Amino acid sequence: MISLPPFVPPTPFTDPAAALAQAQRIYDAALAHLRGALQAYVAQAEGPGERPTRVRACYPFVRLTTTHSRHPDTRLAYGFVSHAGHYETTLTRPGLFADYYLEQFRLLLANHGTTLEIGTSSQPIPLPFSLGDDDHFEGSMTPLQRQRLADVFDLPDLTAMDDSIANGTHRVLSGDAYPLALFTAPRVDYSLHRLRHYTGTSPEHFQNFILFTNYQFYIDEFIALGQLEMQNSGSPYSAFVQPGNVITRRAGSDARDEGGTPPPRLPQMPAYHLKRDDRSGISFVNIGVGPANAKTITDHIAVLRPHAWIMVGHCAGLRGSQQLGDYVLAHGYVREDHVLDEDLPLWIPVPALAEVQIALQQAVADVTGLPGDELKRVLRTGTVATTDNRNWELLGAGAPQRRFSQSRAVALDMESATIAANGFRFRVPYGTLLCVSDKPLHGEIKLPGMANHFYRERVNQHLLIGIRAIELLRANGLDRLHSRKLRSFAEVAFQ
Q1: I need a labelling partner for 115 at 20 to 30 A (CA). Which of 186, 319, 418, 454 fits?
Q2: CA 444 to chain centre
Q3: Which residue intervals of 200-343 are DSSP H helices?
């Protein structure tokens, strides 16, 4: 015997809003069923020989069925399927993803002239994913109840939340539907729960443009800028959010805060959000040092389907002509990070994206005010090598130097190639602009005095360049930003 909420059969819709409302009803009923059952389970004392009733609720799903191939506007990067067939994906958090789902539904209906079916799927919602961010039930259960929890409720199943669709390794079995989205609902829920843990802020606050950095100095400048923006009643940004979901509203706003609390210590990769009402603001994340962190955070942020992410941080300059404080615009990457070898083999190139490259170069020119020839003196375009060995200088024998020379690398860091490669893998437009903070191959190792001067001189300017680049990408429009360059042969329809 399994306790289930009412099953909703697939129902056709031609209106995106009505389809989303149906998904929301199914999802809300599923959560209410699970939460009510959990409360009853915790409140009920069971004897050792009693068998508790199995409880289950499933995600809503959306299905598109086409009987013939269609070729919509070839400039589109998403919003259509290329071949006739059945396409499905499970849905989660319709409230959080309302704008995103509405746009995907609208494009599918417009491009294929058919209906979308919304109904209850067969994919169970894991119990932890049905609870609110602050719901904790473990301490209220007896040891026996904790032991039997998996016998009563569905728990996260790793087989339902891998990245095979994004990696291009997913195989559709005979009779199964083709995927509509890169991520299943359990995979999305998994990342949403991890995001709060790593960043200290709720997924609701994340914006569609992401900046990453590997130094807290940039964050300090961003905090100062965010607070300054909030003092300006005419700012295009409506709120500034810090870890603990601490919200500062724009001057003159009558919106009520949700009452965040500063954490006793910063989370592993703290996030700060300069919000706009249409989610086109900026989220800034200090990922710390290393490719593992870079992969971890981009794995999770990718489920939010941002419009672009950009790395701004420090690097080692590898050319004698570079000066401390010079900028490096990555047009290629040497991937010695090793964290994505299984997901994106090294033989796959990670190209530069013209739209992002142009925006970053223009942003450097706008912020520095330098004309063409002088701009070239402080901005170098070239290959960036990313390593997982922080002390590569100690390897000796000239092996790293030889590889850097053969690859024509002009800079070295520990995060950029990982962020770009995951952007390529998850179809998120990406770019990298680094600032030279030392030149170890030429004996210019960063010393405390040099570092302080460097940070004072360049960090604020570099941050303003990153923000300016996002402003340019936003102004250029999403049609130009989301291009076909990141589509595979059999691409999913959802962005």
Answers
A1: 186
A2: 35
A3: 216-230, 291-301
Q: What is the largest CA-CA distance in the chain?
A: 82
Distance CA 351, CA 431 (A): 10
475 vs 393: CA distance, rounded Å? 42
Tokens of residue 339, six digits: 């964290």
Q: What percent of the chain has pLDDT over 90?
A: 72
Structural domains in the chain (count): 2
Residue 452 — pLDDT band, cuts 50, 70, 90?
low
Q: Which domain holds residue 400?
A: 200-482
Same domain for 128 and 235, yes or no, is no
Please indicate, yes or no, whether residues 337 and 427 belong to a single structural domain of this protein. Answer: yes
CATH number at residue 18: 3.30.1730.10
Token pair, residue 375, equals: 């701009």
For residues 440 and 319, give the distance between their C-alpha atoms in angstroms, rounded to a whole number. 10
Dihedral sign (CA 309, 312, 314, 319): positive
Q: Which amino acid is at 73?
A: D
Looking at the fold, whether 243 and 330 belong to one and the same domain comes out as yes
Q: Is residue 99 part of a domain?
A: yes
Per-residue confidence (pLDDT) for residue 444, from 0 to 100: 66
